[in-house]
Amino acid sequence: LEDLQDAFDFCFKVHYQSGEDRNRDPQYARQLQALQAKLQNLDQRRREVLAQMQQLLGRSETLRELLQEELGDWKERQQRSCLGAPTNTNLRQLETWFTGLAQGLFQLRQLLRALSDLQRKVTYERDPLVAETPLLEQRLQEQLMHLLKSAFVVEQQPSTPNPCKRPLVLRTGSKFSARARLLVRLHDRNHHMEAKIHIDRSGPRHEPPAHPRGFRKFNILTSSSKTLLAGDSPQEGLVCDFQYLVGASPRPPGPRGDGSATSSQGPLAVTEELHLITFTLAYGYCGLELELETSTLPFVIISNNNQFSSAWASILWFNMLSSDPKAQHFFSAPPPAPWPCLAEVLSWQFESVAEQGLSQDHLLMMAKKLFGKA
């Protein structure tokens, strides 16, 4: 396109003379015809390139929708894995796909900018670049933003260093860790990408109006910000790994005024309060800057080990039955669990610690214990 445009522009400046009446000059008429042919060829090629752009953006949109389905399946596998289910939660393949699509979109973005530069140098009546390029840029920008926002995920849910403890149950004053990953491995080394974490950044969603005080409030005592960096090996990707976090409730949190984490301000029991950690990331690449955000699965914060069993039961019940990962008031009206669903989760619990799940006879025995002979 650039070569065609330069050739047309050169011929136009050399042969076309505005304001002169040379219609009877046969040589000048031939020059104008050749110039018109070059303009028609340039216009046709511009329209072909724009059509190819439209086609590529349509394909990328279809691919992005497929990646969203794959990502949704991965999140379901991760949720089951937190409950003890044997499943693969490796992100390497998803990262390869997300990065490949992002690279293609950023290349298209550069091509659209090049087309805009060409249009500013040479334009004409009914120039397709004038009408279509801004629409393509807007469509591409939306695709990139949607892709990047979905590519920021929680790779490791909040968990304590003790391997015997379950994830998603934390204790005040004790260390825990969490990790977020950007599946698009494109970053500008000159751009400082800082990730921050917040506990209950927006407060519990769907909070009942009868309980305006909400849940207990917690602070992160250790560093709550890190720079997103590439891992130690090329396979690790762009991660922000918060390995040594400590959470505590501010003083005074409740009516007792002694700073005890057991004094609940909310309508629910301590072991039924569901909290969220939100990661935010200031992302920038090739002139595109936006804030990315992702949240963990809901977790329970306890103040002593006696509350662990009840807290873990809450985690199981929520992840079995909730379709909204941010429904922090789930236990205001918890639904019942069907036995087949509960039986599967109980089998996962045994398999996660004994490397063997429960047989049908085992589950039948447990069902009789719970429901009686009927």
TrEMBL record:
Its main location: cytoplasm. It is found in: Cytoplasm; Nucleus. It holds the Pfam family STAT_alpha. Residues 157-302 form the STAT transcription factor DNA-binding domain. One of its GO terms (biological process) is signal transduction. Keywords: Coiled coil, Cytoplasm, DNA-binding, Nucleus, Phosphoprotein, SH2 domain, Transcription, Transcription regulation. One of its GO terms (cellular component) is cytoplasm. Residues 1-143 form the STAT transcription factor all-alpha domain. InterPro entries: p53-like_TF_DNA-bd_sf, STAT, STAT_linker, STAT_TF_alpha, STAT_TF_CC, STAT_TF_DNA-bd, STAT_TF_DNA-bd_N. Residues 328-373 form the Signal transducer and activator of transcription linker domain. The keyword Phosphoprotein applies. One of its GO terms (molecular function) is DNA binding. Residues 32-70 form a coiled coil. This is STAT2 protein. It comes from Calyptomena viridis. The lineage of its organism: Eukaryota, Metazoa, Chordata, Craniata, Vertebrata.
